[in-house]
Specification:
The protein is mainly alpha-helical. The protein contains three helices and two strands. It is 43% helix and 8% strand. Strand 1 and strand 2 form a beta hairpin. It is globular. It comes from Smithornis capensis.
């Protein structure tokens, strides 16, 4: 899924079209909500320019990239009249399930690659059964 990754560090907000190929993508929108996705893109661009995300405000423990992501999600929830998520809620509901799944996949891939198995992609159009 091509796009731009926004991230925040001691140098401020960055927009990167590449370099994040090894990251875990956590979907927050249901498939088929393309119109909302475009709205989110506009909100993210506006949000990332806020004073809260200036480089001098960065703090490795308290005001970091995780804070940036959660603050943006809560900003969107606020525009939709929904309650904000705490760090704990967000971690429990979104981050942990995806990191567990990635960990299982990586463990399986590592085991298979070290046991004389050859992993090949399925031909186009073939079901994953």
């Amino acid at each position: 899924f091509p796009g731009v990754v926004y991230n925040y560090d001691q140098e401020g907000v960055h927009r990167a079209p590449s370099g994040w190929e090894q990251c875990i993508s956590i979907p927050l929108l249901q498939p088929g909500m393309l119109e909302l996705l475009q709205h989110w893109d506009n909100l993210l661009e506006e949000f990332s320019q806020g004073e809260a995300w200036l480089p001098h405000r960065y703090d490795e423990q308290e005001h970091n990239c995780y804070t940036f992501a959660l603050a943006f999600i809560n900003h969107v929830l606020g525009t939709q009249g929904q309650q904000p998520l705490s760090k704990g809620d967000f971690t429990e509901r979104f981050v942990i399930p995806h990191t567990r799944r990635a960990s299982r996949y990586l463990t399986l891939h590592q085991e298979l690659s070290h046991r004389d198995f050859y992993i090949v992609p399925l031909p186009e159009g073939q079901p994953n059964s």
